[in-house]
Every structure is written in C-alpha cells, then in structure tokens.
Amino acid sequence: MPDSYAYCLCSLMSFLDDTEYKTIDCTIFTQERLLKITDIDIYQYLADKAFGTSEPNGNSVPDRCRSTTIKYHKKAISSFMPRKRVVWDEIRKEGNPTKSEAVNDLIKLIEKHEVRGTGIATVARRAIEWEEYIMLLIAARQVFSNREKTVYLLLAVMTLQWHVIGRIDDVMELVTTTIQKSLPHPFCLQLKMRKSKNIRSERDMPTQILFGSMDPLVCPLLNLAVYVEMFGTRGFGRKIFDCKSTRGFTDNLEKLFLSSFFVAVKAGYVGSHSLRKGPSTYASRFGLLKDWIALRGRWRGKKMQVDTYIDVDVPFPDAKVASVLCGPRGPCKYSAKAEVEVNDDFLCSIAPRCAEAFGGDVAIILARSLLWAVFEPETVRVNDVAVSIIPSDLRKKIMEAWTNSGRGNDDVNPIEKIGLLVSQRMDQLEIVPVNVALDAVVGQDTSQGGGGEEAIQNLGSQIFNLQQIVGDFRNEVMSLFCDQRRHINALSANVRRIALQPGIRGTVQQPVTNGRILLVPVRLSKCPRDLWVLWKEWEQGLGGGKPAKAFTHAERGANKFSFSRRKVFWDTVDGMVRRGQLLDVAIDNIYRVYGWNNSVTKILNEMKRDRHRGVSRV
User: Fold this and answer.
1) Does some domain include residue 569?
2) Strand, coil or helix: what is 123?
3) Of 483, 368, 382, 484, residue with least CA distance to 416
C-alpha cells in the first residue's frame, strides 16, 4: 500500500483511540481491532476532517477540506478493511464501514455545500487551452535557451503527450520498442503503451496511430526525431527519454507556467495534469464522441461481458481523435518528391541515433521529417515570436550530408508535406493523401463515369485547402491578439503602479560647499532594506554617494563582492525596463516570483542560482 494510504489509516486510528500514531507501519493494527470499526466511527472521523466537528449540524460548513479529500480518505481506509468488498450491513453491523449510507450521505452533503459556494473553493487544475499550449512550446525555447537538452526534452514530451492524451509519467516511461512503423499505413507510426497507471491487462493497451502535423511547432514526429538525434537514447529496448524522474520535468513545466512568456487566457489553476485535460477537452469541442476520446486516452471504464468479444484495436475512432489533436492545420505525412532520389539508406545515414534506438523502419519516417525541416527557414514566427524548429548544429550536419551525396539542388526541399484526410470505408480506416484519387473513400469504380469521381476529388482538395487557410488565419489572429494583450497588460500594470505612487521622484545632486563640489563616496551600502533602495543605489546612489552604474573598473574592484552579488538584480531590472515595464512594476514582478517576505539577500541568492542554471523566471 502507498504511504499516503497508511497515513490515512493512522490518522483514523489516532482519532478513534485518542492517541497519536506517528508510524506508517499499519501492521500494529490487528485484524480484530479493524473489525471493531463501525460506520459511525468512519462518519465522525470524516465529518471532523471536513467540518471540524464530529457531529455537524445545519449551521456547520465544510471549511476544512473538499469532498475529493474525503473520498480519498475513504478509499485509503477501505483498502485496509478486512471485509473491504462487502457493503456495510446496517442490521448486523458488519462489512466495510466506508461503504455505508451515513458516509455516502456525508459526502453528498459536502458536495452540496461546494456547489452553493459555502465550501472550500476548488484548486483542481483546469484543462489547458490550445493557445496556452502554443505558449508553452514557445516558452520552453525562451526560458531554457541556455539548456538545449531541456528545451528539446520538453518539446518532445509535451507534443507526444498532447498527441496521445497521456500522463507525464506514462510518456516518460516509454521505451523504444513501443514505437513501430504502421503496417496498414506505412507513412505513419504506431504506439503501444505498455506501462501506465491505467494499464493492468493486455486489453488496456490498444495500438494507437501517430501522425505528423502540418504545423511544425506541434508535430510529435519532428520533435521526437530532433530529441533522439541530438541526444540519443540508452539503446534499443530502453527508455526514450533520459530523465531520472518525472519530478524534474514537472518542476521545469511549473517554471514555464510562471514565466512571462505564458499568459493564461482564462481563470483557473494550471499544472502538469492540465496537459492531459487539455487535449481531451480540445477533442471533445470538435464534437468527437466521449468513448473515442476515452479510447485514445486509455481510460479504464466499467467492463461488460461484451468487451471481451470486441477487439481492443478500433482504428478509425483512434485516428480521428489523433487527426484533430494535430491542430487546426491537420495531420500530414512526410514524403520524398518524385523528381528527387532519396533512398532508405541515405535517410538512415542522416539519423543514425534514431536507427539505433528504433530500428530502420521507424528511423526512415523520422528522418524524412528532419530532412524537411533542414530546408525550411531557420525560424518561424508564432505569436509574434521567432522560434526555431530544429537546432542549428543538427541542421548543418544534415545539410552537409545532403550536399556531399550530390542528390539534388540545395535550394529545393526534397521532402514535401502532404495533408491527410481520415475517413472510413466499411469497418476499415482509410487515410487518404490530398490530391490523390479518392476511390477508396467513395467506393466507386472510376471506369464507370469518371466525371463524378473527379469532382469529388477536387472537392476534397478544396476542403483541405480551406482548412489550411482557416488554420493559418486563426494562427495569425491569435498572434495579433497575444501581441495586443501583452501591450495592454503592460500598460495597465504601469497605470496601476503610477496611481499607487503619484509623487514625483527627486534627483540627487552632488553636495557643494563654498562653491566646491565635494568628492562623493564610492562605497556600496551594507544592508539595503528592499529592492527599491537597491535600485536607487544603482541609478542615483545612496547618501550622496556615486551611482553604482557609474563606478569605474577600479571602484568596482574595491566593492567586488557586493557589486557582483547585486549586478544580477540590476541587469534583470534594466532588461525589464527596456522591454517597456515601469521600474516599480518590474520590481513588483521580482517580488511576486521570489517572495514578498524574503530578504534582499535571499532574493539575490535565488536570482544568482537561476542565472547559473540558465533559467529566467521574470
């Protein structure tokens, strides 16, 4: 049992025995003692947890915890009960006391208070929106710009997690053998996730398709190929992502949420679980069935006998959800142009680490995405920010291999992206490339009346082109919207800060005695009381002293320890002011990130550590 379950049982027994049990060793509680626990004991304990009293009345409110906490305690305690599968018998007073009417009625009462607003407000993480997902992918490149491996690890995991509606720890545990080439559709990959919280049998791990995306920023194939080819894996059959635990990944994700590059588009808390709720909500808004989304996310529902007679692989619903999760521009495949010779041996040679990790079949598909990215512009503009889609070192290496092979013009991309339409013919999945005959879709013989067939083909191409135009237009509108919102937020913050301090700051003049200007001291203060004083020391000087920004090289050396310690703060504020923020707003943001109650020394130490790690939190 988890330690958290043991803690819940010890908390219950401490409440009942009026003795504090600090141990999490539940073997001290005998079966005879656990059998003496009744439904009233559980009710009083849970009521005390929620209401602060074991006997709540009509005026009591659950101001201690939410119903979800009570349900967790109920579940944890139930796992230790000797008759945990038996419903509580009110007459014979035996069974599992957590499965009683009194306990269930208590939970319903707490939920009613929460609905009416008299309970504790929720702190559950909401679903992340598509615009916020794009901001995260941009923020990863900006916040960790000095840590290349962290950047591409975040991009590969987040795009793959969004595409398969996965949990972070599930994606981090993926091994190379779980990703294979799709046999029915050889231009796609397929995934069979074998290790997950919800996977307990072979029927819980369906085969799922992996598409490329027309939008390179969110393409899971491209981001996966970049990470593996840049940093490699531990070998065939080993983990794809080299990370000791998911804790480090979630910590980096929290830094992205706290960075200035991420602006929430709606109220609510966001966290690591938002990246699982986000794609689920995004797909449901396209009108896809809940069962299809549950299949893609591998959620375990209530099993029925008929489930054992239905194959776990249902290709069309899975592919339909996957195509929606590729974003507004839709799914695609990477294909070599007909006039260019790009054989499989060459593709494996430009992606040797992919071939070593996944094998030749998978490496060929991933290598096509890399070769396509090499010939595209070095940066693309998203939300008015220029971002790179492939590292410059990898781009240079692949370009040199292409040039040395003499296979074609260095100015013409040998790989093209072809959009895909996901459809169904009878019970089979049909993935039709755009501008290819749609015989498989309509199920007609083209030898008998080709005019109607050609019209349908043109109509399909036009629909797909319209989707591309709408997707590009939507991205452009969101880019302009984000830019305007950023300026409005900065302007609003500046106005609010001016309203709080409407006074005019004075300037410090050099002291004059008998017509002579006295020499000002060049010594830094020992203990500035706050960050505003520290900035004044840089800009104007303290106590008639010389401003720190005007120190000569020798004067800086005389104050070497204090000057170098404070320089990280002065540089940060100077950069924020140059970006359009008021001084007071910039310092407020630093206090907000590093803590209002922290001392100046502690804030400076934290900022210095962030600089050494290459992290920008403000």
Assistant:
1) yes
2) coil
3) 368
Q: With contact defined as beta carbons under 8 Å apart, do 97 and 38 qualify?
A: yes
pLDDT in tens, 581-608: 888 888 888 888 888 888 888 898 888 8
Give the CA-trace dihedral at 459, 464, 466, 470, to 10 degrees: 160
Cβ proximity of 335 and 415 under 8 Å: yes
Buried residues in 372-394 as b, exposed as e (16+ CB within 10 A): bbbbeeeeeebbebebebbeeeb
| Structure confidence at residue 504 (pLDDT) | 47
Is 477 a domain residue? no
Q: Which residue segment(s) compose the domain that 282 sits in?
A: 130-301+309-443
Task: Tell me whether strands 208-210 and 212-213 are parallel, antiparallel or unpaired.
Answer: unpaired
Q: In whole angstroms, what is the distance from residue 358 CA to residue 193 CA?
A: 15
Structure tokens, 329 = 């521009």
* 135 and 91 part of one domain: no
**Residue 324 and residue 367: Cα distance in Å, rounded?**
24
Q: What pLDDT, on a 0 to 100 scale, did the predictor assign at position 440?
A: 39
Nearest alpha-carbon partner for 371 in 423, 414, 331: 414
44 and 151 together in one domain: no
Instruction: Tell me how far apart the alpha carbons of residues 337 and 417 are, in angstroms, rounded to a whole number.
Output: 10
Residues 481-525 have pLDDT tens digits of: 887 887 788 787 777 767 666 454 444 455 555 555 555 567 788
Highest mean pLDDT among 72-81, 435-444, 491-500: 72-81
- Tell me if 589 sits within 8 A of 576, measured CB to CB: yes
Tally of domains within the chain: 3
Residue keyed to tokens 């309509």: 442
CB 356 within 8 A of CB 232: yes
Average pLDDT of the chain, as a whole number: 85
Q: Is the pLDDT of residue 179 over 50?
A: yes
Residues 351-401: tens digit of each pLDDT: 999 999 999 999 999 999 999 999 998 888 887 788 889 999 999 999 999
Task: Please tell me whether residues 104 and 157 are part of one structural domain.
Answer: no
Residue 450 maps to a domain: no
Alpha-carbon span 425 to 443, nearest angstrom: 8
Contacts of 327 (CB under 8 A, 6+ apart): 130, 213, 214, 215, 218, 471
pLDDT at 514: 53
pLDDT at 540: 85
Q: List strands edge to edge, sheet with 189-191.
A: 179-181, 189-191, 208-210
What integer is the mean pLDDT of 542-566?
Answer: 83
d(CA 394, CA 397): 5
